[in-house]
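Blackboard transcription, Thursday session:
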Amino acid sequence: MNRRRFLTTVGAGAAGLLAGCSAEPTDDGSTATESGSTDTPESGATATEADGTATADGTVTGTASGGTPLLRVGTYPSFVDAPSSSPGPWLKERFESEFDAELRWFAPESSMDYFLQRRQQGVSIDTDLFLGLTPENLVKADRGVDGGESMFTSVDTADLSNVDAVVDDYRFDPQERAIPVGASYISLVYNQNALDERGVDAPQTFDDLASDSYENGLLVPNPQNSETGLEFMFWTIDQFGEDGYLDYWSDLMNNGTRVLQDWGTAYDAYSNDEAPMVVSFSTDQVYADRYDQDMARHQVGFLNDSGYAYLEGAAPFTGTDQMGLATEFIDFVLRPEIQAEIAQRNVALPAVDNADLPSDYYDLVYEPEETVSFGYDELMGNVEPWLNDWSRQIATQ
Amino acid sequence: MADLELSGVRKAFADTVALDGVTFDIEEGEFFTLVGPSGCGKTTTLRTIAGLESPTEGTVRFGGEDVAGVPTEDRDVGIVFQNYALFPHMSVRENVAYGLNFAEPPDGQSVDERVTELLELVDLSGMGEREPDQLSGGQQQRVALARALAPAPDVLLLDEPMSALDARLRETLRRQVKRIQQDLAVTTVYVTHDQEEALAISDRLAVMHDGGVEQVGTPREVYEEPATEFVASFVGENNLFDAEVVGRDGGATAVAVDGTEFRIDDGLGDRSGGAGDRLTFCVRPEDLTVGADTNRFEVAVDTAEFLGETTRYYAEWGDRTVVFRTPDAHGGDGLTLGFDPADARVL
Amino acid sequence: MRVTRVAERLSAPALAVATLALLALMFFYPVGIVLVEAVRVDGVYTLATVVEVLRDPFFFGVFAQALDDPSVIVDSFPDYRLGLFGFTAYQALLSTIAAILLGLPGAYVLARFEFPGRKTIRSLTALPFVMPTILVAIGFVATFGESGVLVRALRSVGLPASSFTGTLGIIVLAHAFYDAPLIARITAASWEGVDAEMTETARSLGASPLRAFRDVVIPQLLPAILTGALLTFIFSFMSFAIVLALGGLSLATVEVWVYHRISQLDYGTASTLATMEMLFSLALTYAYLRYEARQRATSAARPPDRVDLLGPATKRRLFAWGYAVVAVVVFVVPIVSLLLSSVTGPEGFTLRNYRFLVERQASAYAFQIKPLTAVTNSLIFGAGTLLIAVPMGVFLAVVSTRQFRGRKLIDTLSMAPFAVSGVVVGLGLLRGFVFGTEAFGYRFTVTGAVAIVAAHAVGAYPFVTRNVAPALSGIDGSIVESARSLGASRARVMLDIELPLVVPAVLAGTAFAFAISIGEFDSTVILATGGSSYTMPVAIERFIGRRLGPATAMGVVLLVVTSVSFVIIDRLGEGSGFGG
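(Written on the board underneath:)
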């Protein structure tokens, strides 16, 4: 252990670490400065300024190199970086080919929470709009700022050429900040072979799931940290009402249902035959087909002829300087051909009813007869008590 | 001026008092031994001198200067521990050289020269590159000695360094240590529980018991003129008799032990006391002779230990056990022992 | 000479100040700003939230009920309601027992037997620690699940068997998977220091081998076992991801709730729960430290001979072989299943998943995660972690071996990171430093990468301390005193003598610290936001898709990188084993 070498290494390392720290004088009255945080996408670990200059109200004028306007779009990771397919890269290239602008994706692990935390602490967000906003996200964002300025702002829908084609059932924001841009359906995915072995048919109703024939039959992703699971819970609330869903869940759990960590874990368990049914998406057969699976293991089922609509919208952040470009982007995303392409790449459904999907698309993607969906007003103030009560019941010891 | 002075040193721990008023002086260049049974405080005394313990009361002076508060590393001492405590991750040379990180070698020598010189002194030349775990116990002890001596300390402290060695090796090393000490003339404090060893190598020694010093003196003084009962029975073997004074008998004192009368004459005169007083006297085993003329009493031989040059006998006299030595063979009952009145010592 | 002496005298206090300052900055302050929410409601300081939680039977079961109505203690005997805390403690206790049962025989085999690859296997005992939850979940489902290896094997020999998952048992087993190797490793090190002569003496006095083991060996192993048990208990107590992945929400622990309340923006309750978890764990640690007999890491005068594992069957060997079978099933099969699933697809054997990693590395967009970058980042963060955690850990170990008032308290505090949830640390660092703190007219910020290193270092240094402290206190006092008598100051003794003698322990702690850094997820995912500072576990999570293929491939990469690192670090320590 050469002492000198050790000390030089420590010294060098310490210098490296110190390089990541910074102290900036605060302006009078300003609490948000631009100093050295990695909030700037892709800036890694340095203390330099991001591309832009700090303005007094804490936002950043986005300019890419060379003067092209820069649109920063936040989204959830699997939209841009899924192992199978994601629409993000394609969308970027298509957008940039048509518009004189640079589209920069930004997909933090914690998704919406990332932005909410920063807004709550008064740190600048550096993003212009968010794509992939669910109704629950929106409600949470509004509750998070607790009467302060909303995180999102609305676009002038007059500027959205295809906005009238948006399916009515999909509209979830009365303030029209979030414009629906994609959808899917929460449904059961079940293994017909396994059910045959039990000698039962496919489940048709919620009550079926809680009945003896389907004992130890269902895997549900945890609503606490999975939107899939959360929306399944909403689905049961829609079915049994605020006062009845807890009893239903009591029956479900007594019937051997398991609530696993998240969708990935639940689906993996299902694939390993831990249970014959799992709460998932009605687009399941698209993947199964892609990998030549046994279709009997990928049967899609709706309950009580209904399915819960998993909705995604896009909304600009308040404080953005690129309102114009953001509106153009949303308009672009709503175009029928773009909607069709996004749907296929995202393995989901378009938000508009005039998307040019190939005719056989619906061979593998299922829609329910009746769409269930809670919008902003129904969710506001309710998500927490519902989830809380539900959680406590499930986890009671 | 004495090189090392302890004065009224008292050391109390949480639940025991280890030292209770220890006082002695050591001259420069002296080989001074602290000897006593385990628990008597000799190691604590050594550690106090070293600075590893600080006295609750009393002073320790090095060359006249009070060293209270001076930490061990600043006291000019060298220590050899019972288990040698060699640094396992260093070679022999590195071990010996360690103290020279903090002190210049004497006489302008280089570190290497000094180390070589010391290895030669302890007869370990050529072993410099060995690791401690490759050495025998005796060799390790010598390395520890060389290491302690390398920085030319003012005082050399040895804490029972021979205990872990076999008897033959002990004797050889004992001579070596004594020779080295005399050559270097370094003040040495040596701790041992082996009184034979203490008598053999010391210039002077202190007999310790229960945290206190019973007697300080040369080996001969301590052996021939023990000051207390403890010293009498601890140093060498001894026969102790408690007796009642009968009276004066010429220059000697007449005493009675269990009815048997003896005349003892150790030059104390009237100090022995008057008739009726009690006293204790001792007679060394080698001074009890078979078939002596004076102070006769009859014993029955119990066991005999052949020691080579002589034999040690344990004999019964009444309900006492008596020890005597003679090269001749004896056995059985009805043996008469006796001793010269001058060989008795009153304690 | 005087200047060096003064410098040496000041070195200890200077180091103390530096360490405390670092700790305050990296740990106490960030954690403080999160936990303070427990006593703050709308900016006002109050104990209302705390009281509310204490009185809630959901959390505290029969105790909370008794606060309102003491008679419930009598009435509901013996069916007491556990509450979330009670249940969490209960499963932690079961996990600890399971880990000891699985780990002790492993220590026996490691310490007393010789077999090819022993040293490598010893290095790899730190591997389960690193494995992210999702990988363990995949491996366990593949082993113990309905179509798992074990179930199918049992059925093929005619035994009725069904999936073990979804039960408390599988969670306990998963905890044991993480912690039994830790117990084995720590106990084996202690076992190698047990003197053969003691057992032989007991045997000569008439004790059977088992009796001698119980009366002579176990007492000497007890400190090591207790250390391992304490660590296991705290980890299992704080566990959450594996609970949800293998058991389900009905087996939720307190940490699940902390996470849940945070995501619901209910920082008050989350902080209250996190604080209670922390206090409980710290209390346990303090109690343990008070009664701890310091582990003796000295080499035995004569360590017991090793028996060859391969050879004619004796009772000992049979036991070892039996254990080896169990160990293979519990530890090796899940990892092998993981390996297999990374090269298996619907079409059978395939390298598609690895090809995905290569292609992604080559052609990823800037906003996508690249595998190699994740590996490099993990390694860089690991190195950065070691840079901070090892000196800090060693220093705290040195402090803990000095006798002074309040030593046990400092020791307990230095274990605090064990007892605090990674989510809280990450959140605190995010709020405190990435977002920035205002003081003296300046806003202090650090980059996410620096915050990540801080989070990792904080989680890692206790491992270094807990490895080095027993080794330091096991050094023969007379060696230290000899050095002092030769003129070395306290600081020089530490540098020249004591630290070189504990290099094996430092390296052991280093390996674990590295493991902690590599496998850390909870804080990292909060801090690795959006930029390019993602690590391997984050990448694995990102690659989870409909089929877990790419995720398992990335997982295998993580396992390989970590195994190689461990073996390197551990082997560095070979040849420097001096014991005490």
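Lecturer's comment: The longest helix of chain A spans residues 3-18.
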